[in-house]
Design goal:
By secondary structure, this protein is mainly alpha-helical. About 55% of the residues lie in helices and about 0% in strands. The longest helix is centred in the last third of the chain and has 15 residues. The radius of gyration is 14 Å and the shape is globular.
Length: about 70
């Protein structure tokens, strides 16, 4: 792939070909309660070696943004 956009497109095609869910709804995350459960179950200690700071607020923003983008 020559661009990030091409790589994303190829990955999306592969995901569909192998039958993986490509949305939160497809994964069973259909409401705010499910998103809250994901956020509350995040083990922040396991992410200490991540180069970017991950907090519950960061994860909540990711879930909120991607819920709109992926649906």
């Amino acid at each position: 792939c020559k661009t990030v956009g091409q790589a994303v497109e190829r990955l999306q095609v592969l995901i569909r070909k192998v039958g993986l869910a490509d949305s939160f709804e497809g994964l069973g995350v259909v409401d705010d309660a499910a998103k809250r459960k994901i956020i509350e179950s995040l083990n922040l200690e396991r992410l200490n070696n991540n180069p970017r700071l991950v907090t519950h607020d960061v994860l909540e923003n990711i879930l909120r943004i991607h819920s709109h983008v992926m649906s």
